[in-house]
């Protein structure tokens, strides 16, 4: 029973990402399908959607949701307390350099990757995004596991300056890690080609679950203290979520958040209570 719920728990995350990406892809398709979008416009759109969504979502989590008692207390996932740390302050120089890196990365990716047009078939896009998140999770798992081996560990230590966690820690990386993680994330684009509407949707939703995963809150995508435990312990929980860690036996047991946004965890909690009464 427990193994079944663990599998459903991880599938729920994949489905949420795939469904949300598909909805946003439909929106981007509706906006762009009658417009002739040239290469430079695609690069600018890709860069803008990534940058604007990163800062907008991060600020919303940190400055709005964490100011709300319900989200700050009830949706907090951190169960293993750590010493509070000051987080890095934004500087004009840091933002400019970061955006320059992002723009150059967008330019190189779209120049090298083959473009395809997949249309707006909801089911086909849903299947593509489901495959995309599972593949991205696997690629991230392997890369992240390697970052914790001695020969690559120095590249990753900047990100692990924080054993506590906050949304914008998601973007706190060394330049070497930024390059490797970017290559890893866009590897499926080089294999399968890119549809600009899919790419924009993936970038926006990817920022959402990445920022939420570092925020110590369970809002919509992240239903446990999975990544918090990774920052606290510096080992285990190498994936985006728990599926590949469970497969490769590197999972630190998580504390699951139940609630209307996380039906699997809620159903598991109810079922286990009933099961313990019958036992």
How would you explain this protein's 3D organization?
With about 280 residues, this protein is mostly helical. The protein is about 65% helix and about 0% strand. The protein is built from eleven helices and no strands. It has helices at about 1-30, 40-65, 70-75, 90-110, 120-145, 155, 175-190, 195-215, 225-235, 245, 265-279. Helix 1 crosses helix 8 (about 195-215), helix 2 crosses helix 4 (about 90-110) and helix 2 runs parallel beside helix 8 (about 195-215). The longest helix has about 30 residues, at about 1-30.
Radius of gyration: 19 Å
Shape: globular
Q: Runs with pLDDT <50, length 5+? A: none
State the helix count: 11
Biggest beta sheet attributes: none
Strand content: under 5%
Number of strands: 0
Oligomer: single chain
- Distance between the amino and carboxyl termini: 14 Å
State the helicity in percent bands: 55-70%
Order of helices and strands: HHHHHHHHHHH
Helix vs. strand class: mainly alpha
**pLDDT averaged over residues:** 89
């Amino acid at each position: 029973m427990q193994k079944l719920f663990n599998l459903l728990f991880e599938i729920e995350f994949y489905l949420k990402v795939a469904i949300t990406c598909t909805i946003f892809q439909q929106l981007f398709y509706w906006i762009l399908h009658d417009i002739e979008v040239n290469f430079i416009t695609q690069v600018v759109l890709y860069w803008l959607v990534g940058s604007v969504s990163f800062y907008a979502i991060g600020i919303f989590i940190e400055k709005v949701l964490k100011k709300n008692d319900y989200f700050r207390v009830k949706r907090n996932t951190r169960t293993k307390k750590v010493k509070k740390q000051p987080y890095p302050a934004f500087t004009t120089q840091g933002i400019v350099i970061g955006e320059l890196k992002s723009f150059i990365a967008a330019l190189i990716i779209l120049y090298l990757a083959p473009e395809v047009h997949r249309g707006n078939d909801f089911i086909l896009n849903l299947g593509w995004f489901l495959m995309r998140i599972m593949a991205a999770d696997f690629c991230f798992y392997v890369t992240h596991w390697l970052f914790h081996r001695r020969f690559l560990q120095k590249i990753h230590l900047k990100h692990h300056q924080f054993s506590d966690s906050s949304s914008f820690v998601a973007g706190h990386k060394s330049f070497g890690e930024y390059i490797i993680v970017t290559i890893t994330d866009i590897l499926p684009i080089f294999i399968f080609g890119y549809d600009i509407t899919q790419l924009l949707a993936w970038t926006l939703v990817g920022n959402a679950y990445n920022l939420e995963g570092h925020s110590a809150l369970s809002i919509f995508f992240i239903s446990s203290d999975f990544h918090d435990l990774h920052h606290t312990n510096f080992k285990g929980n190498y994936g985006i979520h728990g599926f590949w860690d469970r497969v490769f036996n590197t999972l630190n047991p998580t504390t699951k958040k139940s609630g209307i946004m996380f039906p699997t965890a809620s159903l598991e909690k109810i079922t286990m209570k009933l099961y313990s009464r019958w036992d």
